[in-house]
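From the pipeline queue, job 12 of 40. The input is one protein chain; the requested action is below.

Action: predict structure.
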Amino acid sequence: MANTSRLFFALWPDIETRQTLSGFSQGIATKDCTWVSPHNLHVTLVFLGAADALAIKQAVIGITAPPFVLTFDRLSYWQNPRILCLTCPQPAPNEALILTRALETAAASCGLSTDTRPYTPHITLARHAGYLPETKIEPLIWRAESFCLVESCSEADGVRYQVIEQWPLIR
């Protein structure tokens, strides 16, 4: 595939949400992991992998979905990928599912396969974790007002996520 990048659709936090997430990570009492850089914190909607950004941007023209709210109130440990993440207690709101399905359809129109598991909103805080540390968290309210196309860029000191384009969610 010519002109491909490693891409995904995501909810990108505003400055206040990013600062709250960063502070939360610093309050977890474990060093047995690799913390996600505050700049890279996000909620993945649909992972695309190697894809043509221009084709993807054209495929999402016309996607509309209403804004929605996600409440992250649980620190979870996912053993298989060995991550610590914030999760929501209930299934994703219908508006989030409508958006992810529309984005999956756009990806399919570009010949891309996406994850077939049910959508589970989460915020990865740390990788290479060995266990779930005991900690109390305050619920984080995430107001999704837009979604974006993000590129995963390899750098000398790791990966940096770069927003390519952002689209508003419309009431």
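Job complete. The chain has a mean pLDDT of 91.
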